[in-house]
Amino acid sequence: MSGGVKFQFTNHAQRALAEREIAIEWVERTLKAPELTLPDPNDATVQRCFRRIPEFGGRVLRVTVNTTVEPKRVVSVFFDRKMKGKL
Predict the structure, then answer these.
(1) pLDDT of residue 84
(2) Residues in CB range of 23: below 8 A, 6 or more apart
(3) Which of 18, 57, 78, 83 is deepest in the core (most CB within 10 A)?
(4) First CA to last CA across the chain, in angstroms?
(5) DSSP secondary structure string, 55-86?
(6) How far is the C-alpha of 60 from the C-alpha of 71, rounded, in Å?
(7) What is the distance between the alpha carbons of residues 55 and 71, in angstroms, rounded to a whole number?
(8) CATH for 7-83?
(9) Cα dist. 41→12, 22, 38, 83 in Å?
(10) Do 77 and 14 form a contact (C-beta atoms < 8 A)?
(11) pTM, entire model
(12) For residue 38, how many C-alpha atoms fall within 13 Å in the half-sphere facing its CB?
């Protein structure tokens, strides 16, 4: 990845990318410039980053990332139906 945010994927996140056909570039875009960032209510080490993906019908991608480790660790990634129309 060229300059900017460095991160790695957990096995769960790698599977999610493949199963859900989510482009890594969309994850990078979401982490570099989230439209919304929220703390995870269940884990203080984790942040939820949200961004609309125009190439995917404007659906909202949610990237859950552990920000306390270096490189940052992507824990899960999916399109969040609950965020539709909220960004």
Answers:
(1) 86
(2) 55
(3) 83
(4) 27
(5) GGTTEEEEEEEE-SSSSEEEEEEEE-GGGTTT
(6) 24
(7) 27
(8) 3.30.2310
(9) 20, 24, 9, 16
(10) no
(11) 0.90
(12) 10
Structural domain spans, the chain: 7-83
Contact 25, 2 (CB under 8 A): no
How many Cβ atoms from other residues are within 10 Å of residue 83's Cβ? Answer: 19
Which stretches in the chain have pLDDT values below 70? 1-5
At 62-79, the pLDDT tens digits run: 999 999 999 999 999 999
Q: How many C-beta atoms lie closer than 10 Å to residue 61's C-beta? A: 24
